[in-house]
Amino acid sequence: MEFLYTILIFLLGSAIGSFLNVVVLRYNTGKITSGRSMCFSCGHKLSPLDLVPIASFLVQGGKCRYCGTKISKQYPGVEIITGILFVALFYKVLWVPILLGSVSIESFLLFILYAFIVSILVAIAVYDIRHKIIPNMLVYLFIILSALHLFLIYPLDYLLSYPGFFDLLAGLMFFGVLGGLWLISNGKWIGLGDGKLSLGIGLLLGFTFGISAIVLSFWIGAIFAILALILGKIKPLGSTKLTMKSEMPFAPFLILGTLIILFFPIDVIGISYFFEI
To answer: What is this structure's pTM?
Structure first.
């Protein structure tokens, strides 16, 4: 039964990932939910058999079956990653209640909320990699859902007391710091969209784990940049290889750090120690 649940949730996640690819490619075109998918090279309308998540890419050998043009690995990549994230959410939120026979409406709704949040984060990361900009609509939706999550998880009296108000105000504090970096550097160090994203991260993870996510993202970004410069072969989507003067999107690292802390809530720099004094 566990295996069946895992497969079904993975298939659901990969289907959502397929839709996220559509969102990323059609955002700002006014055609996110309208118009049939087509090959960008030959313009041929794609049939349902061409759009089966992961399977179509494998069966077709990673090429359009009408013109033979190579299909971007973004498509199966996003589908696989989203499927894995949905499975991880299932085990984080629903698996223990299922084992105990105590699945509630609240836990099911929490899973759905997390699924929406994770899906939005994946879309933001991929869009930023492709275009080096964070869509306002997606980041604002992330902020709203993260705020909803905050008030669902914590009682109001906790958020209005010490140390709970740090979790309540974490998003604004993070936005102040990253927004300040954007302002001071005139957008050269970090984008304003990254500041907006950090606001949602604070609301989602709270003060301690939000700081952990942001610190972790800087570490991961630094390691990636160093490796990219050493290897000289890492090529972002739609870009040339990285150099010292390359502009690197930071949102994917913020999102990776956020997802790691979401599933493995670790206080990486010991912030919680100060609340115990």
So the answer is: 0.89
> What tokens were used for 40?
């960008």
What's the token pair of residue 231?
């290897």
190/184 Cα distance (integer angstroms): 10
Distance CA 148, CA 72 (A): 35
Which tokens sit at 55? 């399977």
- Which of 214, 196, 227, 204 shows the shortest CA–CA distance to 254? 214
Q: How far is CA 172 from the centre of its chain?
A: 20
The rounded distance, in Å, linking the Cα atoms of 148 and 116 is 12
pLDDT in tens, 209-251: 999 999 999 999 999 888 877 776 555 554 555 555 567 889 9
pLDDT in tens, 120-159: 999 999 999 999 999 999 999 999 999 999 988 888 888 8
Q: Which residues on adjacent β-strands are paired with residue 63?
A: 70
